[in-house]
Amino acid sequence: MTLDADIAVVGAGPAGCALAIRLTQLGWRVLLLERSSQPRRQSGQSLTPGVRLQLAQLGLDGMLRLCGARPAPRSRVRWQGVEAEDRLIPQDPPLLIDRGRFDGLLRGAAAGVGVRLLCPAVLIDRHPTPEGWILAIGDAAGERRVSVATLVDATGRAGLLARARTACGPATLALYADWQGPAFPDLPCIDTGPEHWAWGLPREDGLFSTLVFIDPDATPRRAGLEAFLRRLLAASPLLGDFAAATPVGPVRAVDATAYRADAVSGPGWIAVGDAAMALDPLSSSGVQKAIRTALAAAIVLNTRLRRPEAAALADRFYADDVRDGAEQHQRWTDGFFAAARQSVASPSDDAPSGRGTFWHRRSGRMAALPAAPPTPHSAVLYPDQPLTLAPTARLATTSCLVGDFVEERVALHHPALGRPVAWLAGVELAPLMSALPAVTNRRALIADWSITLGPQRAASLVGWLTGHDILQAACAER
């Protein structure tokens, strides 16, 4: 028995489902394979607010409401000091979710737009061909074959194709469990210990979920995990009373090491989600990054298949995008760990490199990364103050997303930008920047650009350029 498809996606997590949905919307026949009949238990139970916009891009605006997502504007944190503090995020707070329900709804959404979902199903065998792949698939209907142009690795850390990886941080183990007990906090909590950091979350069903991140070599054998985890949690003044707490199900230990795949695409294949890049769990942005890779990969594959002459350009774009995302996130986490080390690290942290504790291993790594772009600022400029283009700013051709394809466009390059920028808020920068006079001023520039952009967008764009030092006070060159 055979199946018809253009693209096969292996793995129906957030990245695999998002990619399958977007590719179907672009007109491709997609086969989505998933080994487990039900979404697997996940340690993470929160989403960053950017996921809301990503779901809207996929036409899934109401999915967060359907999965019971709850905003969490307040959390209790003990990170850079001895005392805990309540942190407020009144605008766009993180969202607390049931990950099983969320992942299940994504599977349903994929099937609803026309994705051929086989679940449970396994990839028995694969053979590359000049045209793509011949796959042998096993499911309830038996063994079937399908010929596809592209195979997508969305298998997470297991890695079907993208197995060679570069670590973006030290080896990290996550211990997680759900607890039942009489005295737990009613808001999310983050706490630090001498050799770990911990996260706790009250759930709608009355259980309390915990995650502890620790060095793998500091953990006991599986038989001693529950007692070890209970001891770490009990030492926290934030996470509640674990003396009378009962775990619901076994304590799980999973790899949480950050890494980037050495190759994220190749002839006839591409990797998305954790198969391409796994982030340090500190930011809780794993789902958002996974969907982001899927949305980019959909455009890359659409370009490859409809414009084969641009395939190499599309692959370079995707490799650069994944690399830049991994480096940006590593700089962010390294800074947080370095700050925390100052307050919670033990005296043994002064040991030589490679022999330090949990905090020592996670700080001081930024020297190995390219320098971070300078932080944007609010430039204080008078309306008539002369402005000129910074000598380090230039326009050059680069690859970028243009509609549903990867194309070459003239983009703005500057040290303050993480990547070249071709468009900003829907405005193509090259025509504006190439027509800049040698010296102008803020008032004249806003008046000139307002003709085509409108006053508000023109003022916003000038503010962005001055805030990144792309436009500078003319006297700054003297």
TrEMBL record:
Keyword Transferase: no
Name this protein carries in UniProt: FAD dependent oxidoreductase
The organism's place on the tree of life at top rank: Bacteria
FAD dependent oxidoreductase domain ranges (all copies): 6-45
Lineage: Bacteria, Pseudomonadati, Pseudomonadota, Alphaproteobacteria, Rhodospirillales
Gene3D superfamilies from the UniProt entry: FAD/NAD(P)-binding domain
GO molecular function list: oxidoreductase activity
Keyword annotations of the record: Oxidoreductase
Annotated PANTHER family: FAD-BINDING PROTEIN (PTHR43747), SLR1998 PROTEIN (PTHR43747:SF1)
Cited InterPro entries: FAD-dep_OxRdtase, FAD/NAD-bd_sf, Flavin-dep_Halogenase_NPB
